[in-house]
Fold Xanthine phosphoribosyltransferase.
Amino acid sequence: MRELEDRIRQDGIVREGNVLKVDNFLNHQCDVGLYDRMGAEWARLFAGQRVDKILTIESSGIGIACVAARHFGDVPVVFARKTESKNLDGDQYRTQIKSYTKKRIYEVIVAKRFLVPGEHVLVIDDFLAMGCAMDGLLQICEGAGVIVEGIGIAVEKGFQPGGASLREQGYRVESLARVSSMDARTGEIEFA
């Protein structure tokens, strides 16, 4: 998606350790108009696929997934929680994921009543790098018996193994911006 790539070039900041900061428009301050156009693009890319629900993980994926859901007939959005809460009740799917940027392990939780066996799910998230968060979401989907129609990613770091691994497993991954390289010294970002 050219608009997203241009915005990353314009406003993205490359940090040491393969970190790409896009917090002024994607995952801290939210450009809702851009989110809407991203949702429209995913709807175009996944046209003809049945989508009963969208699944994401807190926190950065929630806004993007909610806006995208409008383009899929206002389907519900379910998000995996990274923290225990008194409001979480009933049976739950749980798995652990390692956060690449935060360098810690999270237990992620989805109440079983929100993922019904046989439902068709589109998984959406803001970033895909190593694939740890996505692997956790897919474990939850497998445990729930839902059908994963595809994975929508805003920004994929194509030089890291997450996307290739998912594609090798047979998942359809549609990334709107696929970074092929970035340089913290110069700030340059290249796209595939």
